[in-house]
Structure formats: C-alpha cells, structure tokens
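One example given next:
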Amino acid sequence: MKAHSISKKKYINETISGYAFMMPFVISISVFIIGPLIYAFIISFKDFSYLNPSSSHWVGFKNYIGLLNDQTFKRALLNTTIYSLFVVPTQLFIALILALVVDSDIKGKTFFRVAYYIPTVTSTVAVSVIFLYLFKADGLVNTILSKVGIHGQAWFNNVNFALPSIMMMAIWSSVGNYMVIFLAGLQDIPMELYEAAEVDGANKFQRFIKITFPLLRHVVFFNLVVSLIGTFQIFDQAYVVSGGSGGPLDATMTVVLDIYKTGFKDFNMGYASAMAFVLFLIILLLTLLQRLLFRDEMY
C-alpha cells in the first residue's frame, strides 16, 4: 500500500513537472500564434483599421465577397499560381538531379554539396539585390547577351519578363534546400537493392526507375508540399524587386505582397485578414489534394 502511494505521488510530481516544462511553449504559442490567428479571423469580418480601431464595425462577409471583384487580388492570385506551377516542378527536378550527382562517387562531392546549398542560407533580400544588379539594363546578363548579338531587356521593369526573372532567382536560391532532403532520402535506400539489380543486369536508368524513384516517393511528397506552400507565400523577392509596388503593372504582385500593401499601407486590416484566410484555405486544399494523391506514400 505504501509502495503504491509512493508510486502515485511520483506520477503526480512527474506530471506536474512535465506540464511546467510545457508551459513556456504553450503560453508563447498562445500569445504569438493562436491568439493573433483568432483575432485576425474575427477582424476579417470587420471594417477595421489600426489607425482608428474604435471605429471598426461588423460587415459580415463583405470583405470576402469583395475579393471576387478585386482585380488586383485576382492578378496577384494568377501571378502566384503561375509562379508556383513553374517553380515547384523545376526546382524539385533540378534538386533531384543535383542530389543524384552529389550522392555519386564523383571527386570533390563535399565541395559541391556545400556550393549547391550556400544560396539557401543566403538572405533572400541579399539575393534579390544581387539579381537586381545582374538583370538591370546595363547589368552582367545583358552584357553577356550583347556579346552573342542578343539585345537584352530591362528584365525587372518589363511586364513580360519581371515574373520569370523572379522565378529564376527563386529556383537558384532554394534548390539547395530540397537537394539536401533528396540526398537524405537517397542515402536511406539500402545498397543491397542496387547490387542485386546490377547482378540482374539492370543499367543505371533502370535502377533509378525501378528502385530509386519508387523509394523516394515519400520524400517527393514532402518536398512537393513544402515547396508549394513556400511558393504561395512568396513575398521577399517580389517586394525588393518591385520596391513594394508589385509593378510593373502588377506583373510581380503576389498574394502576400497584396496582403501587406492592403494591411500596412492602406491600413485596411480587415480586408487584408480576409485575403490571408483565403490564401490559407487555398494552401490547405492544395495540401489535402497532394495528400490524397500520395496517400500510399504516407505510410
């Protein structure tokens, strides 16, 4: 009986200690994440401005309905979608190729792993400034093109080339991150499978199709979800390149940049919150769709 009492007391003490250790995290996530999310959801149904919060009033679904006729938001959503459709598959394809290269027996593969990964840890603002200089009218890119008889563009000031230029910048700066994840997946594949396939006469391409890619499908799913979420949240590059305007003629306007302008420049925080939750819903639906398509690779 005494032993049971001691055991129960020890259990209670451990439980209290466990909750005590959890409290800083629970409090911080409640104050800085959960609380603001709930508050943002509430003001998305209001005409709200931080300049005069006392004058805010309930407007119901007016903010959400207004998005249906908001041409800037539609253009931002279109730009973001086009950006995602091009960047996601391109950067994942390049990342997989690079992972296969640095996982092979080439000399200096440690150097190449570091070299491919360095752009990932570089500030996106710094990368954007570098590309602004590279792609300006008298920049390095146009100088090289002129040597081969091609007339260059003012890339970021051209409606047709501004968004593709940001796409190239995003791919270059983020592909290393997905390469590392693919590399981890490749190194988790047992070598015995490759050895057995080689004994059976399978060439490198056949080994990739029959062994490597099927066993990497769960890694592909993870990278696809993370990449898609990241591309729909693009802000830094578009802001720096356009000076925060989304120009020229909204060619680089993205959903998050539109949210930023609406909330912090126009001070229409209720409308901006509605835009943010629409973006959240889009990302959630796309993630669930990918989960459905890759459900066999989840387990």
About this structure: Strands lie at 46-47, 57-58. Residues 2-43 form the longest helix (42 residues). The radius of gyration is 25 Å.
